[in-house]
Design brief:
Largest sheet: none
Shape: elongated
Low-confidence stretches: 17-22
Structural class: mainly alpha
Radius of gyration: 22 Å
Number of helices: 10
Distance between the termini: 26 Å
Helix content: over 70%
Number of domains: 1
Length: 256
């Protein structure tokens, strides 16, 4: 009788898992993840290219300060959008855990830890993005500083944000490797997405390393690695439009 109960337990667990998946299917989770991922990508593009890319003048603190104060609302939106997509990263990470734990639980947990590390670093670094609004805002507590000093402090705070973001991307490079491994071995997603994501991970690592060890070289090598970011766009679109192969996911789940 005890043996029968023991043998029946895995069958009940699989049946319970199947019943749960019918309500919250892996394909639905994948499509939600794809939508969240596109929000994250679009938010990053807006904040980096449309906001900081247009308002921050490299090497010119005065011009940067002028642009920020002249377009304060745009600059604030850049901060808020980036803050919002950091929130989106949380449910995205949880869904990725649900999808990939059937492939390899240890690697999936490592991916989750790296995801949250990247997110935490970026959120803290966002203080550097917002700081110029406080420094240049004309509060009584900064009257002791000259305009040039305030402009310089504002520019340095933006540089601190950019370097904090580069630290986050260094961790994200390893995150890409973990995700690439999971996708490549999943069978329910195309292996080519895993290969592309691994290449992107190399790009992030090389770019961040160059920024810290060879800052004069980094601007020259960045254009060669920038196109690798298409891997994330491809993954997000695949998840949103196609989802995952449910039959193969369930086969993985039943043997996990």
């Amino acid at each position: 009788m005890l043996d029968q109960r023991i043998e029946g337990e895995p069958q009940r667990s699989v049946a319970k898992s199947m019943e749960h998946n019918a309500k919250w299917s892996p394909r639905l989770q994948a499509r939600i993840a794809g939508g969240l991922y596109l929000i994250v990508i679009a938010g990053g593009v807006f904040a980096e290219l449309v906001v900081r890319g247009q308002l921050v003048v490299t090497g010119d603190a005065a011009a940067t300060a002028h642009n920020i104060m002249a377009h304060q609302m745009l600059y604030r939106w850049g901060f808020f959008v980036e803050l919002f997509y950091c929130v989106c990263n949380v449910p995205l990470t949880v869904i990725f855990y649900n999808l990939f734990k059937v492939v390899n639980r240890n690697v999936t947990l490592m991916m989750v830890v790296l995801d949250f590390t990247v997110n935490a670093i970026e959120v803290i670094s966002l203080l550097g993005h917002f700081a110029p609004l406080l420094i240049l805002g004309g509060g009584h507590y900064i009257n002791a500083f000259t305009a040039e000093q305030l402009q310089t402090a504002s520019y340095v705070s933006i540089q601190l944000f950019e370097h904090g973001f580069a630290i986050a991307l260094f961790f994200f490079g390893f995150d890409c490797f973990a995700m690439a491994y999971l996708i490549y071995n999943s069978t329910f997603l195309p292996r080519i997405l895993g290969v592309l994501l691994a290449i992107e991970g190399i790009g992030y690592l090389v770019n961040s390393t160059a920024l810290f060890l060879a800052p004069t070289l980094q601007p020259r090598i960045f254009p060669y690695f920038a196109p690798t970011a298409l891997a994330e766009i491809a993954l997000a679109l695949w998840l949103l439009v196609v989802g995952v192969n449910v039959r193969k996911w369930e086969a993985k789940a039943s043997t996990a």
